[in-house]
Design a protein that fits this description.
The complex is a heterodimer of chains A (230) and B (445). Chain A is α/β, with parallel strands linked by helices. Chain A contains eight helices and twelve strands. Chain B starts with a helix and ends with a strand.
């Protein structure tokens, strides 16, 4: 999942980058409203965290222009303005959620999680569930039959992306675009390696390769769960 | 304080009555005096004619009947005379009297000339009496002639009634006209009065500047004051927003640092730091929110339920997920609340947010307006609060939030706003099964 953070306070942005990076998100950071307006609309972000008091262009205006331009990416407003009149303004401008400063880091993570799930039509439960796989996003592990299978950070973010797109063919390019931030070098072979690791941990049939098309997440259906290497 | 209209009417009526009475009485009096003078000279002629009719006969001095006007013969004709030979004790000459007076004896006035007072005549007549002194045939004599004045008096009385009647009618007409004129003239005042009322009801934010020049300073001053208050409010809210921003962002950084893995080795330090940070946050949020309250400084402030509530509910729905059933209704349908929009949004937002946090599936808001109160009721189907705990919750107003997300100070802020608007907050059992919060706000006068 690739996020854009638009926040002009460097110290807070540093914290957010670190926190969200740990949570397995690929995060880009911008501080100016005008840059955000352009980059938010041109890069394929899965979610945008937007501060309102921005230099260059106020956050609400940036959001309005995004929405006017047809951008459907979920936007979470992160601001010190905590009054209901302002929340309503944010909603009217097209925000999907509104979190006020100061906040606990885990609260932000929960909000991002639930926004992503909602955007992909999944229920907001404690664990992410798709195709019979239960993913604990806090511990970054899969729970199966009461047992916990730990994942590496890269496996976790790959699996989460696939689980948020169940029964959909996801191309390698798409994975590269959504799993890495704008500054990391992208290598499609790395994806293959991680897919293989996941197959080894969860069973071969969990992820199906469609030649020249991409990957398809099947989950742990009763038929293929037998292959689980436990 | 009496209305200007009333004062003008009373003033005009009393002046008109006073002047009218004075004028009517004076003209009657003048007319009366002129008439008497006129009749007096006629009476003098009569007396002269009577003198000429006196003849000396063997019996003494008598009247030549042929030279007398027949009117002196007809009984109670209203024309009378009496001739006295002076001195009075001279028995030889019995006095001569007109037959018309019948057995009534005309009085003998002391002074010659027209008498100022009316004398009683026969048959309740009032007589105008004239006495003239002569000397004829070597004899001093006084001729008294009188004339009935009653018809004149009667017509005066009639005139008075007519005058009074027309006076009253004229007064009524004048007062009505004056009312009309005054109303016309005061129309701008009435317009301003209506606008001030609309201002209070929140239907407008300033007074119309198109007023007569007498009112212009007043209207301009009111508008300036309104503008000033609004600007001040905006400025102070802005400043508070800046303070909030300046303090809350570093706090957010501190919360984030507090959650760092490096610090997890010292859980006691992390805990106490977190507690303190939470305290700062709660205090900051609550104080800033209290400082932002406008209260009723702006008469034009208003909250249009049908416009604001759908947006507020959409926001709540978005924050709390799609499976909550939120419902609202107002009585009457088109309800405007006469308070600052942001204050009310803050009140309702926190109240409903709190209800949504606790509710399992349903939250309902109803706002009802009576003549003196506005009652806001929020119901949820959550766990509710046991009777004995309610007082405790109200006294601190924090417990309700702590348990769900550790965020916000919902009821605390609600309490602040309710206090600020001089209202009352009570907790009860909801028909939906959970908690019912009832807020009663007195409508500003």
């Amino acid at each position: 999942m690739r996020l854009l953070i638009v926040e002009d306070q460097v110290s807070l942005a540093d914290e957010l980058l670190a926190d969200l990076g740990c949570a397995g998100y690929a995060v880009d950071w911008l501080a100016d409203g005008r840059d955000a307006l352009y980059q938010g609309a041109s890069e394929p972000y899965d979610l945008i965290v937007l501060d309102l008091g921005l230099p260059g262009k106020p956050g609400l205006e940036v959001l309005r222009e995004w929405r006017a331009g047809g951008l459907a990416t979920p936007v979470l407003i992160l601001t010190a303005r905590d009054h209901w009149a302002e929340r309503i303004e944010g909603l009217k401008a097209g925000a999907d959620d509104y979190l006020t400063k100061p906040f606990h880091p885990e609260e932000l993570q929960l909000r991002i999680q639930s926004l992503l799930r909602r955007a992909h039509g999944l229920a907001n439960q404690t664990r992410l569930e798709a195709g019979g796989v239960q993913l604990d996003e806090r511990k970054q592990s899969v729970i199966h039959n009461g047992k916990e299978i730990t994942l590496t950070a890269a496996e976790f973010s790959l699996l989460r992306y696939l689980m948020l797109h169940p029964q959909q063919i996801v191309s390698k390019l798409q994975l590269l675009e959504h799993l890495y931030d704008g500054e990391t070098e992208r290598d499609s072979n790395v994806i293959e390696v991680h897919v293989n690791h996941l197959r080894r941990k969860l069973g071969k049939a969990v992820i199906e390769t469609r030649r020249n098309q991409g990957y398809l997440f099947n989950g742990l259906q009763t038929g293929n769960a037998t292959g689980l290497a436990l | 304080m009496k209305s200007i209209q009333q004062r003008l009417s009373i003033g005009l009526a009393s002046v008109l009555i006073l002047v009218g009475l004075l004028l009517a009485q004076t003209s009657l009096w003048l007319f009366d005096a002129g008439l008497r003078r006129n009749l007096g000279s006629e009476l003098q002629l009569d007396a002269d004619n009577l003198l000429a009719a006196l003849v000396r006969t063997g019996d003494g001095i008598t009247l030549d009947q042929t030279r007398l006007s027949p009117v002196y013969e007809r009984p109670f004709s209203g024309r009378y005379f009496r001739i006295e030979f002076l001195p009075l004790d001279d028995l030889a000459n019995a006095d001569l009297r007109s037959r018309s007076a019948w057995d009534h004896v005309l009085p003998l006035p002391d002074q010659a000339g027209l008498q100022a007072d009316l004398a009683d005549g026969p048959q309740t007549q009032k007589l105008l009496v004239y006495r003239a002194n002569y000397r004829r045939f070597g004899q001093d004599l006084a001729i008294i002639v009188a004339r009935d004045y009653t018809p004149v008096l009667q017509s005066f009385q009639q005139l008075r009634w007519i005058g009074l009647g027309t006076g009253v009618i004229a007064l009524v007409i004048i007062l009505l006209l004056q009312r009309l004129i005054v109303r016309r003239a005061l129309q701008p005042l009435d317009v301003v009065r209506r606008q001030v009322k609309q201002l209070q009801q929140g239907q407008r934010t300033e007074l119309d500047n198109q007023v007569p020049e007498e009112l212009a300073p007043l209207v301009q001053q009111i508008n300036r004051l309104l503008q000033h208050t609004e600007d001040t409010l905006k400025r102070s809210r802005n400043a508070l927003g800046n303070v909030g921003h300046a303090l809350k962002t570093p706090l957010a950084v501190l919360f984030s640092i507090n959650a760092r893995t490096e610090l997890q080795a010292h859980p006691d330090i992390v805990d106490s730091m977190r507690t303190q940070l939470n305290n700062i946050r709660q205090r900051l949020t609550r104080e800033l929110s209290r400082a932002r309250l406008a209260g009723d400084v702006l008469p034009g402030a208003h909250f249009h339920c049908a416009e604001e509530l759908p947006l507020l509910f959409a926001t709540l729905q978005q924050i709390h997920g799609r499976d909550l059933q939120l419902h609202w209704q107002t009585v009457p349908d088109d309800l405007r609340l006469p308070w600052d929009r942001e204050d009310l949004l803050e009140l309702l937002g926190n109240l409903l947010d709190n209800a949504c946090k606790w509710a399992t599936a349903r939250v309902a808001l109803s706002i009802e307006k009576t003549t003196r109160n506005i009652t806001i009721t929020v119901d949820d189907d959550g766990p509710g609060i046991a009777g004995e705990q309610r007082a405790e919750v109200l006294s601190r107003g924090t417990r309700l939030d702590e348990q769900v997300s550790g965020h916000g100070l919902g009821l605390g802020i609600v309490r602040d706003i309710v206090d600020h608007l001089a209202g009352e907050l009570t907790l009860a059992d909801s028909p939906l099964g959970g908690l019912r919060v009832v807020i009663s706000l007195p409508a500003p006068t």
